[in-house]
């Protein structure tokens, strides 16, 4: 007897897809690449749309990242000095338009606490009330650069805080990270109609020129370019390049690492987005070694 159900084919496909997911979660060992294959197949079968695929991939990417990979670097941190009067730090609030600011004592290595902008509204609008900035501060949450981003997101949600100060192995402040920074990795930036569509992590533009997403996993980059960047130092190639610059580079800045030239082609105030990677020709290699 034939199957008269017009949706039976799609139902079988969905069942097969779900069975494969169940198999991956119950099999040993589990591999992220298996999940990525399932997500791609589900998208190709129209079981999930491209936006859902992107968010699922974002979740998997976040699971590989450390705080140092997506933090706002120290040089880009907007801070308030604890001794500044309202008239002096109000322009900082207006210029940056953040909801939270680290409050420092003399320099960025001495964080006194976190100021939530809404906490000063009643005082700013009522000049007769006496107040001191130190009395409005919330405790600063301190995390190491090596903190896993997925674990940090869980802590953000459970403990209901939104910002953490990132410190290096010596206790110096190296940056900050917010819950919005993590969510951006999952749902992506809000792009306008002039932004280029994202493609593969690594795209070949010429015989020696490549366009590379800054979020390309470091193991994938090392395999593609036969490099030996330390995966303990960063989880993505963008993290490696950012550390090498020592500051948030602007569009067009270049740096040479392991014989490759990295050019920043897209970045915002918080992170690197896209890199152009140039592999020097043999003659260029010889000149670079002189």
TrEMBL record:
SUPFAM superfamilies attached here?
A: CBS-domain pair (SSF54631), FAD-binding/transporter-associated domain-like (SSF56176)
Any single GO molecular-function term of the entry would be: flavin adenine dinucleotide binding
Q: Which keywords annotate this record?
A: CBS domain, Cobalt, Magnesium, Repeat, Transport
Q: Which Pfam families match?
A: CBS (PF00571), CorC_HlyC (PF03471), NMB0537_N (PF21917)
Question: Gene3D superfamilies, from UniProt?
Answer: 3.30.465.10, CBS-domain
Cellular component aspect of the GO annotation = plasma membrane
Entry superkingdom:
Bacteria
What positions does the domain CBS occupy? Answer: 71-130, 136-197
Described purpose of this protein according to its UniProt entry: Plays a role in the transport of magnesium and cobalt ions.
Question: What family, per the record?
Answer: Belongs to the UPF0053 family.
Q: What is this protein called?
A: Magnesium and cobalt efflux protein CorC
Question: From which source organism is this entry?
Answer: Rheinheimera riviphila
**Source taxonomy lineage?**
Bacteria, Pseudomonadati, Pseudomonadota, Gammaproteobacteria, Chromatiales
């Amino acid at each position: 007897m034939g199957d008269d159900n017009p949706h039976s084919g799609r139902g079988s496909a969905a069942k097969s897809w779900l069975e494969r997911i169940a198999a991956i979660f119950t099999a040993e060992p589990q591999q992220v690449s298996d999940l990525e294959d399932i997500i791609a197949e589900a998208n190709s079968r129209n079981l999930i749309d491209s936006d859902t695929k992107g968010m699922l991939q974002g979740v998997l990417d976040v699971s590989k990242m450390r705080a140092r990979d997506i933090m706002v670097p120290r040089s880009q941190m907007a801070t308030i000095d604890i001794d500044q009067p309202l008239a002096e730090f109000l322009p900082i609030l207006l210029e940056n338009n953040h909801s939270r600011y680290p409050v420092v004592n003399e320099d960025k290595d001495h964080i006194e606490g976190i100021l939530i902008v809404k906490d000063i509204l009643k005082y700013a609008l009522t000049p007769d009330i006496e107040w001191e900035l130190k009395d409005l501060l919330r405790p600063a949450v301190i995390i190491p650069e090596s903190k896993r981003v997925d674990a940090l997101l869980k802590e953000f949600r459970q403990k209901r805080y939104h910002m953490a100060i990132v410190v290096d192995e010596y206790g110096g402040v190296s940056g900050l990270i917010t819950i919005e920074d993590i969510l951006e990795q999952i749902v992506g930036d809000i792009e306008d109609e002039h932004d280029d569509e994202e493609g593969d992590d690594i795209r070949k533009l010429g015989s020696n020129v490549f366009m590379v997403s800054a979020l390309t996993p470091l193991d994938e980059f090392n395999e593609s370019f036969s490099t030996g960047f330390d995966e303990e130092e960063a989880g993505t190639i963008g993290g490696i390049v950012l550390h090498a610059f020592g500051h948030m580079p602007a569009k067009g800045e270049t740096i040479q690492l392991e014989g490759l030239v990295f050019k920043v082609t897209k970045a915002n105030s918080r992170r690197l987005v896209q890199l152009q990677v140039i592999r020097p020709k043999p003659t260029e290699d010889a000149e670079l070694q002189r």
